[in-house]
Amino acid sequence: MSRPPFPPFDTETAALKARLAEDAWNSRDPQKVALAYTPDSQWRNRTEFLCGREEIVLFLTRKWAREHEYRLIKEVWAFRENRIAVRFAYEWHDETGQWFRSHGNENWEFDEAGLMRRRVASINDQPISAEQRLFHWPQGRRPDDHPSLSALGL
User: Do 113 and 85 contact (CB within 8 A), yes or no?
Assistant: First the structure.
């Protein structure tokens, strides 16, 4: 199995890789998302350490069961050879209706087939009011004309 674009990355392919990851995560389909990772992919997400697609699917299933109306934007920070660093923000609310904007950074490492073999994520959650939300597109893929993180001042 392969997942273009392939390393080594340039400005265009790194941005495409980030957008494809964003689109997959905005689908909120754990099985679909997990296919972008190697079968033995290593993750650190906040304080959790995961190994492999099965653990990724279980993690994402739990995540999206508690993070309602999830909407994500990713933006490339840097890239080199088979690695990409992105920054991201996503908005969601919990079961009580409290909204959050979660800000973070991810470091990605890819194999030669374009599958992510390592993901290291650091994330902070910021409580916000419904009026402070910036991500208002319908659930799913972010529209192409929606502002980026930089354009939103995030």
Answer: no
Could you tell me the pTM of the whole model? 0.97
Domain boundaries along the sequence of the chain: 11-132+148-152
pLDDT tens profile 91-127: 999 999 999 999 999 999 999 999 999 999 999 999 9
First to last CA, the chain: 35
In which residue are the tokens 């319908």 written?
138
Longest dimension (CA), the chain: 44
- 3-class state of residue 62 by DSSP: helix
| Distances, alpha carbon 93 to alpha carbons 30, 68, 102, 129, 136, in Å | 19, 5, 11, 10, 13
Q: Tokens 């529209």 sit at which residue?
A: 143
Taking the CB of residue 131, how many other CB atoms lie within 10 A of it? 6
Domain 11-132+148-152's class? alpha beta
